[in-house]
Amino acid sequence: MPPKPQPVSTDPNTLKIARLNGQLEIFYSIQGEGKSAGIPSVFVRTSLCNLHCIWCDTDYTWNWEGTPFAHVNDANPEYRKFHKKTWMARCSVGEIAERVLAYPARNVVLTGGEPMMQQPALVALMHLLRQHDAAYRFEVETNGTLLPHSDFEAAIDQYNVSPKLANSNNPQRLREKAAVYRYFAQNPKAWFKFVVAQLKDLEEVLLLQERYAIASEKIWLMPEGHTRQALARRRRWLVEACKTHGLRYTDRLHVQIWGNQKGV
Ligand code: SF4
Question: Pocket of ligand 1, candidates 58, 62, 195: which has the most ligand atoms within 8 Å of its Cβ, to mutate?
Answer without folding.
Answer: 58
